Amino acid sequence: MSAPSDAMVEIRSVHKKFGSLEVLRGIDLAVRPGEVTVVIGPSGSGKSTLLRTINHLEKVDRGWISVDGTLVGYRRDGDKLYELREREVLRQRTKIGFVFQNFHLFPHLTVLENIIEAPVSALGRPRKAAVAAAEKLLERVGLLDKAAAYPAQLSGGQQQRVAIARALALEPRLLLFDEPTSALDPELVGEVLDVIKDLARGGTTMIVVTHEIGFAREVADTVVFMDEGRVVEQGPPADVLDHPVQERTRAFLSKVL
Amino acid sequence: MSLTSDPPVDPSAGPPTDPSAGPSAPPPADRCAAKGAGAGSETLTIVPARHPWRWAAIAATAVLLAQFLNGLITNPGWEWDVFARFFTAPTILKAVWVTLQLTVYGTVLGFALGIVLAFMRLSESRFLRAVAHGYIWAFRSIPLIVQLLFWFNLAYLYEELTFGIPFGPGFFAFDTMNLVGATSAAVLGLALHQAAYAAEIVRGGVLAVDRGQSEAAAALGIPRLRQLRRIVLPQAMRSILPNAANEIISLFKGTSIVSVMAIGELFYQVQVVYGRNGRVVPLLMVATVWYILLTTVLSVLQHYVERHYAKGAVR
Ligand SMILES: Nc1ncnc2c1ncn2[C@@H]1O[C@H](COP(=O)(O)OP(=O)(O)O)[C@@H](O)[C@H]1O
Ligand SMILES: [Mg+2]
Fold first, then answer.
1. Closest ligand 1 atom, CA of A226?
2. A223 CB neighbour count, 10 Å cutoff
3. Is residue B109 part of a domain?
4. Positions of the region Disordered (chain B) (predicted)?
5. Which residue among B83, B140, B189, B305 has the highest number of C-beta atoms inside a 10 angstrom radius?
6. Per the CB < 8 Å rule, is A106 touching B222?
7. Which of B216, B223, B313 sits opposite A152 (nearest CB)?
8. B-chain residues within 8 Å CB-CB of A101?
9. Ligand having the closest approach to the CA of A52
């Protein structure tokens, strides 16, 4: 299992069951640094589960995942994988940003407090430095004037932009997005996609689960089509989206396009 | 009340043309405005619905209330002069203080243990869950008064309490009668009883917080304890507080049960005084007014604490 040195994320033969339901049936995937990978596929195909295994929010049953050359959630000794303790897993997660479909901002904290919470409590950054960095991030997502607002006072699009800023505050090596625009009103989708596109141009490594095919075509280096817990097809957007080889990919695309 | 004078207006009759309305029936006002015809006025006056029965109920209630107040003032049986003499008497004030202490200790210890029990019940260990569950089951089943008497008579069960290695040699030994004096037996009893209820309230509050919250905190790598203290508990407080306030208020009044252990709290002291002078009613009023007064203070406190934890909530 020597990870190729040029992979930021390497996923090998990952299996995952919920009870008797096999959600991931052997996933293999590699993401190079600076690349944007867009994952598409029907509902229930295991996209969220796959994303959640990458930062160990779900444990895998079989296989392994490495990020930036380090195994996630396990330590290897010989041919055994030892599960890491929670504190070590938490430390690994600070290098992996996760943006949820439903934002999950902390409603009782202001926008600024939401963003500085992890840098201060997980990385031990001084509060002052964390605030300065948070303000820069808010400026980047165009919400500096909302620093003192509470999440409930923001629109869905603004909340998701704050959630992205919150994930960026840890300066992660990798960003994971789980349907970041699916909970938004149609007119708010654009502002969130613009922020993600901006990050993509900046060279952040990202895996994005989305149903926005137009976004995938514009931003993705690789498009991955998943169905029933397997990667059915992957490649550049021009191939997978415009000239799919697999019948299932074609059937799915004809429904969403 | 006439049921026939007005044509019934069918709320489901939405479309502009209403076949059931005869030619003589006046069109409902809203349709009139929609057409912009007829009244020719943009501002139609709104006449609120009348509530004759509500006025009747108000009148009846007012009469009963006036009678009650009149009785309070004019009936000599209340003996307000006796009430005034004892309301701030030093023995009573001291008893109020004891009642407050019992409440504070019972609440603090009860909720401290309750929080531990709540997280035991939420833990992934089946053993810890079962122990907490068993505790809650037992202490909710035993009437408080029975439990208090047990503690009070602990000395008969165990004459000595020994601190040392479990089942092994002991280092210190205490005479239980000295260790568990009447007041500490009361505090212990109240706290153990309270803990069972507090545990369920805290657990309910934690479960009411969206799972996505601790998940987002975990995804950000925020340390476990910090997740609880900073993210989950403050949000859980919103549903914990109203129930906790109920519990504290009922514990406050529940301290009167402790009078069976001859502890000089408010209710016991009042009984002692009327046992001496026979003025039962005014002295019961002394206790009542103190209970009401202090419960009111607690309710006001509750209001401000709840407002603090409502930060960020938009209704
Ligand atoms: N925690 C869970 N427990 C049980 N079943 C789950 C859990 N999470 C997801 N599933 C199931 O796994 C399947 C894949 O889910 P998911 O990864 O969310 O799919 P997708 O994101 O592609 O829609 C679904 O059938 C879902 O119901
Ligand atoms: Mg999903």
1. 22
2. 24
3. yes
4. 1-36
5. B189
6. no
7. B313
8. none
9. 1
Structural domain contains residue B64: no
Going from the Cα of B208 to the center of ligand 1, the distance in angstroms, rounded, reads: 22
Inter-chain contact A93–B218, Cβ cutoff 8 Å? yes
Distance separating alpha carbons of residues B197 and B243, to the nearest angstrom: 10
DSSP codes joined into one string, A185-252: -HHHHHHHHHHHHHHHHTT-EEEEE-S-HHHHHHH-SEEEEEETTEEEEEE-HHHHTTS--SHHHHHH
**Closest listed residue to residue B244, CA positions, set B297, B306, B185:** B306
Taking CB atoms and an 8 Å limit, are B220 and A122 in contact across chains? Answer: yes
- Note whether residue B310 is domain-resident: no
Residue B6 has pLDDT above 50, yes or no: no
Digit-coded pLDDT (tens) for B233-262? 999 999 999 999 999 999 998 899 988 888
Number of domains in chain B: 1
pTM score, whole prediction: 0.81
The verdict on residue B228 lying in a domain is: yes
The tens digit of pLDDT for each residue in B119-163 reads: 999 999 999 999 999 999 999 999 998 988 888 777 566 655 655
CB of A104 within 8 Å of a chain B CB? The answer is: yes
**CA-wise closest residue to A107 among A153, A168, A158:** A153
Radius of gyration in angstroms for the set of CA atoms belonging to chain A, rounded to a whole number: 18
Domain interval for residue B227: 96-163+171-266
Q: Which long-range contacts (CB under 8 A, 24 or more apart) does A243-246 make?
A: none
Within 13 Å of residue B283, how many CA atoms lie on the same side as its CB?
18
Q: Among candidates A67, A52, A58, which has minimal Cα distance to A12?
A: A67
- How is residue B67 written in tokens? 């009678």
Ligand 1 neighbour A43 (Cβ under 6 A)? yes
